[in-house]
Amino acid sequence: MGGAVIGLPACGAGTVTNIPNNGTGGNTVTIAHADGYKSQYLHLSAFVLANGTSVARGATVGRSGGAVGAPGSGSSTGPHLHWHMINPSGTRINPLEYVAAHPPTGALPKTTTETTGEPGPACYRRMQNWLRLTNGYTGPIDGVMGTISWRGFARFLNLDAWD
Hints:
Blueprint: E1 7-9, E2 14-19, E3 28-32, E4 38-42, E5 46-47, E6 54-55, E7 60-63, E8 82-86, E9 92-93, H1 95-101, H2 112-116, H3 121-135, H4 147-156
Antiparallel strand pairs: 1-7, 2-3, 2-6, 3-4, 4-8, 5-7, 8-9
C-alpha cells in the first residue's frame, strides 16, 4: 500500500507483539491467533497497541508508512505494507488462504442479483474484487461497471473487441 499513512486492521483476533526495527522489515506487528497461525505487518510508521494486547478482527494494530529512510521502515523502497501469514508449523503462506479459511461471521448481504436477478453495486464490487484477486485488475472496486471494469472483464474473457 502506498501513499497516505493508514491504520492497519487485524485479519483475525489474537495477541499483539511489537517488534521494533525487525531487520529489513522495520517496525513489525505480529498477531498470534488462537489457532496457531501468526499474522505480521511490516514496514510500519507506528505501533498503536502495547505488547500483549488482545485484539478482535478488524482492530487497528499499527500504521502504514515505510517511507525510504524513515524510522521503522527497514529496507523499504517506498511506502507500502508487507503482510505475512505464518501457519502453525512455521511456514509462511499466502495471507488470502488464511482469510478464505477464516471468513467473517455473519452472512454477506444479499445482492440485487440474488433477490431480483439483476446485477447491482454489490454484485459489481464482488466482480471487480474477483478480477483484482485473480487477474491483476487495477481499476476501482466501487460497484460501478465503468469502462475500466468492463475492459478488465473482457480481457479475462479474451474478448479483443473491448481493447
